[in-house]
Each structure stands twice: as C-alpha cells, then as structure tokens.
Amino acid sequence: MTMRLLPVDTTEIKTSCCRPTRSKIEGECATIYSLKSNTINDGIYVYLPVRGYELTLKNRLLDQLGGFSHLLLEAAHQFPEHCIDWVLKVTGLRFQQLQPILTRLEGLGLMKGNRLTRSGKNFSVWKRRLHDQKRLIWLDGDHRNDCFCGDSSVDTVVLPDNTHFVIRRWHRLEGTPRSWSCKDWNEDCERQKNRIMRHPERYLPPIFEHFTDCFIDNGFKSHEWDLTIRIATDTPEPRAIEIKLNAGDLHRWADHEYTVASPVLCLSTCYSLPAGAPERLRNQLPNDHLRITTINTSSDNIDLNCLSDTPPSTWVWPEIEQDTREQIIDSLFHEITTPDDPAEVRFNREHRIDDRWQRLGFNWPLIEQKLEAKGLHCIRGDV
C-alpha cells in the first residue's frame, strides 16, 4: 500500500517527561526517560470490495400483457375521455378488434366503462415509472448480512494490489481470503437477488427513484414482481469503496475485529561495569533508560509490557519510510546529553534501537459510521 506520508514536522512532536517508573522490557528493569508521539500522516485508508449489478424490476401482470394492453392503459391515463378513439386512430384497428383486449382488461379489474379503475391507475403508474426499468446497484460480497448499498453516483476506486487494508466480511477462516465471496457469477447474482428480496423496501427505494411514490397507498407486494439481477458488463471486476480512518479511531483494546500493528521505536540506554571494575560497584549501576516514540498515536497510558517484538497483524500502519525513520531516531538521540550524575561517568553506556509494536484496532460498527459518502445508503434497522 502506498501510504500518504507527510514530512516529519518537529513542531508536531509532543514530548512528555514522566516520573521515573520501573518497566519490564526483555526481562530487564528500566526507567522510562521520555515518551513521544510523532505525527507522520493524517489517516489510514481501508477498502471495502464492492461489485456493480444491473437490476431490472418487472410487474408480473404487466409483463404478461401485450403491447396493445399497455397502449390502452397509457391512453386511458393520458386521454380519459377519448382513449378508445385515440387508440383506434393511432393503431388503425377497428373497434371489434380492440374489444377482446378491453374485455380482458375489465376482467382483470384494470378498466371499467373504458376508464381506468383504481387498480388500473396504479398499473398505469407502475408501467411508466417502474416496470422493466434498469438501474445500477453496488453491493459487497457479504450476502448473509445487510449493511449498505450504493447507487450509480457512488464513487468507487480500483482495489489497490499492494494493500492489506481490505475488509472482506465474508472471510471467516484463516489463510488468504478469496477476492470475492462466490466464484460463480450466476450463483453470486442469485445470492444477491435473495438478499435484496429479503428486504426490498430497504434496497429498492434508494436505487429506483420512484419506488416509494409508487407504493405509498398499498405497499410493495413482492410476490407480484420479478427482480432480475446480473453483473454489470462495464464493471465486472470488484472495485472498492475507500474509507478514511483517523488515528483517534484506533484503540488499544484487547480484542478487535480488525487489528492494526503500529510501530514503536525504542532507544534503550544500558549501563554496565567496565572490564575489571570492582563487583561492589554493581549496586551503584544507574537504571537503564528508555526513550520511546509512538507513531500517530498518543503515548499516554501506553503499556510497555504489551509491546511485541513482531507485528501482531499484517495490517501495519503507518509504514515508515527510511528517511522518516532516521529523523525520528535522530530526535531520540538528540535528547542524550552528558550525564549530570557524576556516578554515571564511571560506567559503560550502550545505546540500542529496538523496533517494537503496539496492538491497535477497530470494530465493524466504526466502518458503518464512516459510510457517509455520496451515493451510499445504509441498509439496517427497522423501516
């Protein structure tokens, strides 16, 4: 992943000198000499894979009716007083040829006395505003859960090849996750269709702009409609929604759904007896000193015993460039001066840089809160 790094600004380095405390690092006692928080960049970017689908919604009865029936319904809506004359003029049919169609529409309860019934008016509106219309919807691959969908205006990005910061909620096992939850396109479409039709009143209104107006009076009866879904040909491969998290969104909790390894640079100053020095001087050895810099996180209340020698996750943030690392180390060494205590001069001093890691993380509800971009719609809770 290409991290968005800013040059180290020494004005942003916050140092808090603590009272000397005894901490266990690698089995040795040390005094915390200073804690720093170094700001390198302004956030972490995670990615939610999504795929574009083309939806087609059809009313079953309207789909069974022929073109002349549709024309009569439209004419009865546009010209309620002269619909029959208008149809005869436009089509060139005789009334005797139109009579069976009128009889069928009356039998279906859509027309009466050459006028639309209340039900017929509904079907006329559906024909114009909803039936057989196509729309684009963006969905993630977690077929079993409902969280969000995106309409055609949502801004998606190509999923970066070199990033670990990808949230695939369908992945429940260890090992390398699949790029998508279902390899077979037909099976994927069927699962997404079932997902939508479990809660059509949540998914369809954001996608079909007239959906809500069409069903204000009687509600949407899903058994009267067919939904067709296919992968959009212009976006067959999964793309992603980019979400920015701030440093304050990451917490030092014991358990997270998503764990982030954050680097910590430690400068240890260790004291030892010179070769041949009297053993009795060992009791006068000063405590080892620790100078610690956390990156993009507060150094307050950091538990040194929880720092690990290896990253606790493949999600490493931030990734420190070599020149930035050197600047941080220079800053740590800049604090080291000639010892004030004359006793310290008698002993050997050794400085050592250690790379350590603190365990940070976040949970899925945080991601839900961040889904605020244009074109994204939350799909959760009661409607």
Protein traits:
single chain; 383 residues; alpha+beta; 3 domains; 4-stranded antiparallel beta sheet; rod-shaped; disordered N terminus
Question: What report would you give on this structure?
Answer:
- With 383 residues, the protein is α+β, with helices and mostly antiparallel strands.
- It has three domains: 10-43 and 252-363, no CATH class; 48-58 and 130-244 and 365-378, no CATH class; 59-117.
- Helices cover 26% and strands 27% of the residues.
- The chain is built from eleven helices and 14 strands.
- The chain has helices spanning 60-64, 67-78, 83-91, 95-107, 118-129, 185-198, 200-207, 211-214, 322-334, 342-345, 364-370; strands at residues 14-16, 22-25, 28-38, 44-59, 111-112, 115-116, 133-139, 148-150, 225-231, 239-245, 258-272, 288-295, 348-362, 376-378.
- The strands form four sheets. Strands 1, 2, 3, 11, 12 and 13 form a six-stranded mixed β-sheet that branches. Strands 4, 7, 9 and 10 form a four-stranded antiparallel β-sheet that branches. Strands 5-6 form a two-stranded antiparallel ribbon.
- The protein is rod-shaped and about 125 Å long.
Helix-and-strand structural type? alpha+beta
Average pLDDT across residues? 84
Task: Describe the largest sheet.
Answer: 6 strands, mixed
Overall outline: rod-shaped
Q: Give me the Rg, rounded.
A: 34 Å
Strand tally: 14
Number of helices: 11
- Give the count of structural domains: 3
Order of helices and strands: EEEEHHHHEEHEEHHHEEEEHHEHE
Q: What low-confidence regions span 5 or more consecutive residues with pLDDT below 50?
A: 1-28
**N-C termini distance:** 39 Å
Q: What percent of residues are in strands?
A: 25-35%
Helix content: 25-40%
